[in-house]
Model the fold of this input.
Amino acid sequence: MKALVFWFEMASTYSYLSAMRIEEDAARAGVQVVWRPFLLGPIFRAQGWASSPFNVYPAKGRYMIRDMERLAAARALPFRMPATFPANGIAAARMAIVAARDGVAGPFVRAVYTAQFGAGADISNADVLSRVAEGVSLDFARLSASASAQDVKDELRRSSEEAQALGIFGAPTFQTADGELFWGDDRLDQALGWSSRL
Amino acid sequence: MKALVFWFEMASTYSYLSAMRIEEDAARAGVQVVWRPFLLGPIFRAQGWASSPFNVYPAKGRYMIRDMERLAAARALPFRMPATFPANGIAAARMAIVAARDGVAGPFVRAVYTAQFGAGADISNADVLSRVAEGVSLDFARLSASASAQDVKDELRRSSEEAQALGIFGAPTFQTADGELFWGDDRLDQALGWSSRL
Done:
């Protein structure tokens, strides 16, 4: 089975859209999803941006919210921007690494995004993450402890460096087994089609 | 019949993709296309960019070329980046205004894009534009003279100001009769669907 690497950033609105559908769509295409959280902050800073481009460029930010409203409505997904955007998603990203090792990245990551962009919750808050994890029957104490281990911190830092080295500049990005990159939720179908033909 | 305003920039790669299909797709959706060339240069400069974001952010620029190669191949369109990007598209945009007044924006604009991004021609060159116009049976001497008139220059400047005031920050952008904006060739189907339901 061909693998498609799903590079996502926990604070990214469009990653939410892809996370909610990628497993079902990939299964239909006969493609296996590899969940790889990374951090966009260092990549944005390297481009000279102190925040998300949606904050740096307000017209783009206003458009993104309207675009998300329309796309979420069309897909029957809840959508509500959190008060602080982008959230500090480092803790959630480290937990996603642990969840991926345990084979439960899908349920955990979807629950984090649904809390954040469906209900407007602040995912930098440990209580929020605790409720999210327990809502999908994950042991938060264990998840939290594992996520604080040095090897997980190192893995997230290395993944973010790897993403930047690959030329990734936004999320979600899909990486095929033959090295093609597809950027944006708009490209998920194309990335799955490409992978299924390998 | 509902109208959809097609805001395009003559030097924009993704506008090429939309220009090549918008009339057929709109006809199928029962939507009328309004061709409105504008200039992205002033909008980019207002955001602090001295050039296209594809030049300002090289990773994004490299991705765009690969993305265009794949999309053009899938649509059986030729694709070749011109040596100088972005081209100075002011003369071509003014001619597109004249062509739109004459009801021949589609053939003219498609021919300009095909020369530029299908064959790599420099559309700031009057000889190139002359061959393009004659290739679609337009009288270049008349087109060129009309495009140099003050009212056409004024219209292009006003259109670019209007685009910026609407919150447009990239091309192509599609504007529905009820004021929705859809950015990018990826959103053409959605914009047509929205328009056809009005």
In short: Chain B has a mean pLDDT of 97. Chain B touches chain A at residues 47, 57, 59-60, 62-63, 66-67, 70, 74, 167-169, 180-184, 186-187, 190 (CB under 8 Å).
